[in-house]
Amino acid sequence: MRRWLVEYPRGIPLAVFALIAAITALSVYAIETGERARQRAQLSEDAQTIASAIERRANSASAYLQAGAALFEVQENLSRETFGRFVDRLLMDNTHFGTDGIGWARAIAPTQTLAFEQEVPEVRINPPPPLGQRFVVPVTYLHPGSERNRRALGYDMYSEPVRRAAIDEALRSVRPTASGQVVLRQEGSTDAPGFLIYMPVFNAQGASQTLRGFIYSPFNSQDFLTAALKTVPRTGDTILLYEGPPGQQSLLAQVGSDMEGAISVRQQLTVANRPMELELRSAKPAPFSPMSGLTLLFGLLVASLLLVVVRLLTRQVLEDQAALDWLTEQDAIRDSLTRELNHRVKNALANVLSIISLTRRRASSVDEFADGLDGRVRAMSATHDLLTRSEWGATPLRDIIEVEMAAYMNQDDWNVRLDGPPVQLAPNDALSLGLALHELTTNAGRHGSLSVEGGEVSVVWEPVGSSLVRVTWEEAKGPRVVRAARNGFGLQLIERIVAQQLGQPVELEFRETGLYCTLLVPVRLPSDFALRARHRLG
Length: 538
Fold this sequence. Notes:
Mean pLDDT: 80
CATH topology of the largest domain: Beta-Lactamase
Strand order of the largest sheet: 2-1-5-4-3
Distance between the termini: 23 Å
């Protein structure tokens, strides 16, 4: 476990948090699943209750139609007055049953339409029956005789396919039969869906039965559903009644508005010998119970607490491991320090000996020798100070240039420009570049652009690939430059010692505008002393 905490200091706490969160989510899912099942069961029970209420309404209307059919079968002549007295004695409250009333439609042969209209002058059959039609079933009476109901008088119900199918089924089964979705003639120009229930009436007099017509009730679907729901407690759920498989085309009536994500159940029912389907949708979206909320909150609290605890344990383990690594690193640093000091001292002494040798050859007096040696040793000392501050790790190139040109920086007499990206140099390369810059600066101060007021020096560096940086020294607005028969000591120092230590050629050009020098400096990894830098950054 300790090894895992060290190898995955962030992953282990997150894994523990994710595990507890997953367990919490699973618990919430189980609770919500149970809550949905409970709500669905309640909806199913409510749907059965509503379906029963709708069927009772339809059965009540069917019972009145069956009673009327039994009465009219023994009536020799079914006049408007006889039909009206029958309906009045039913004492039926139309709004209570959700029906537009009770009607009588006589069944006649297509050849008898003229005689029928003469017998019942207030009725005109429409549309005219086509040739070959089995019979004509015009609306003869419709009680109550309101202006709305009078729109249906004379309409041949057998001429329309949906009504015709219901009439044929009623004849076949000899029982009240509901039609599919239609627009009642009473609706006029509106397209409110409705349906009708037909009950055939036969002539019981004589040896053979003959069809006399149909007693029927027209229903506005919305009014019918609203009347049926008056006998059941409402919960605010959405109720939809379909004449067949649920769909917008088969929708008869709807009470309530749709809810996105609501739970819904469906219930089959039979309305007057016709199968229909009821859909009940919950009045609210999918539930999120208080128990789920408490479980989720508790789970997140536990997961967060464990995340903090494991994070603290991980931090403690990492600190212990870091302490062990530090002790091991100190031993390595001590060994590296000894080797590095030997290497640096040898390099420094070799540079000093080379400088002394070249200076001695060019000096004509002890004072000249001492002055030349003093400046170059001071340049090495300034660069050493930068390396010491960086603990002999990587040193910024810009800092080296600024140290060597400090006497001419930010002065009104000269214009010194430095430009280039951040670049880090290894200690040996920093010493060599510092020595070269010292010689270039000294030469410019004695003979070049920095020896006159208004002189300009531009030092620009840019990466060359991934392992080199090109440093360009360019002078302008100084004295006219003419290359001597042989280079002075400083330029020889750059071309020999610096070029050899950097391992790259040095280009020197004596242009009319001033000295132009290009150095290629390796970009190397820091020395072993970077162990301390890594520990300090960590």
